Amino acid sequence: MVLEKFSLEGQVGIVTGGGQGLGKTFCHAFADAGADIVVAEVNAETGSVTAEEIEAKGRQALFVKTDVKNQDSVNAMVEQALGTFGKIDFLMNNAGIVQHLEAEKVEAADWRNVLEVNLTGVFFCSQAVGRHMIARQQGRIINIASMSGLIVNYPQAQVSYNASKAAVIHLTKSLAAEWASHNIRVNAIAPGYMNTAMARPFFDDPEYGGVWIKAIPMGRPGEPKELGPVAVFLASEASSYMTGATVVVDGGYTIW
Ligand SMILES: NC(=O)c1ccc[n+]([C@@H]2O[C@H](COP(=O)([O-])OP(=O)(O)OC[C@H]3O[C@@H](n4cnc5c(N)ncnc54)[C@H](O)[C@@H]3O)[C@@H](O)[C@H]2O)c1
Fold first, then answer.
1. Ligand 1 centroid to residue 73 C-alpha, Å
2. Where are the beta strands (DSSP E) in the chain?
3. Ligand 1: which residue has its CA nearest to atom 42?
4. Cα(124) to centroid(ligand 1), Å
């Protein structure tokens, strides 16, 4: 039956940045599809709450305080996940940050921080989990890119974010090419403006909000729960012939 292909029953997945926003929604979506979840989050307070919520719905969950830009922290998280669950079936690289600032004003430290979280963090996590997946000859990785990796947003300036997300899309293709022979599929999701803490304040801002809404053919921001089924699709057998792809979920923003 076709719906069985979407099941994650008996599987274990890691979600980075699972303490709030899209990451929390992904943790719930994967758990609803049957998976046990490792919440790899830098914020101990929000990360442990998500883990408790997952356990409350009858799945196993492990919170591990993790800074994705720190390779030692990432490797320790993967060790702990393997120590608890013995395997990792899929990895969702979701943690990300943004800085809105004109290019000529961006400080070196802020440039590096955005690139380190959004791009290097995706690489460190993929590499650490990828080694385990190569040994098992199976696995799926889903990277959260952004429509900002395909277009340049306006009116806000966000050069480091845009560059980092474009790089995530190509990192996805590079890993997909290298690891296809190991039966590891690597895909990305490129969301448009979603109703989370990252974007919500700007929708309320008269300078941004109105401009953003007019640029979205569907005329509204996306709700985090509208991404959950896409993530389950990419984590499951339902997408068995997909790799290196970027699925755009943006209410039509990139059409215009
Ligand atoms: N909200 C949007 O409109 C939108 C659109 C496109 C893409 N995205 C992407 O989706 C992802 C999630 O965004 P969101 O809107 O839920 O943001 P958010 O700010 O609500 O949540 C991000 C989470 O990542 C965690 N995090 C930040 N730095 C970390 C680090 N170094 N190590 C581990 N965890 C860390 C934060 O603590 C937080 O829990 C990001 O990659 C973002 O770029 C968001």
1. 18
2. 12-16, 36-41, 61-65, 90-93, 139-144, 184-191, 246-249
3. 96
4. 17
256 falls within a domain: no
Parent domain of 97: 2-250
Which residue shows structure tokens 């919500």? 200
Domain count, the chain: 1
Cα of 181 from ligand 1 centre, angstroms:
31
Q: What is the CATH number for 244?
A: 3.40.50.720
Active site residues: 161
Tell me: the pLDDT tens digits for 190-241?
999 999 988 888 888 878 888 999 999 999 999 999 999 999 999 999 999 9
Q: Model confidence over 132-168: pLDDT tens digits?
A: 999 999 999 999 999 999 999 999 999 999 999 999 9
- The answer to whether residue 152 sits within a structural domain is yes
pTM for this one? 0.98
Residue 142 resides in a domain:
yes
Measured by CA distance, the residue closest to atom 41 of ligand 1 is: 96
Q: Is residue 255 part of a domain?
A: no
**Which of 16, 22, 93 to probe ligand 1 with, by most ligand atoms within 8 A of CB?**
22
Amino acid at 153: N
- Average pLDDT on 112-127 reads 99
183 alpha-carbon distance from chain centroid: 21
**Cα distance between residue 119 and residue 168, in whole Å:** 6
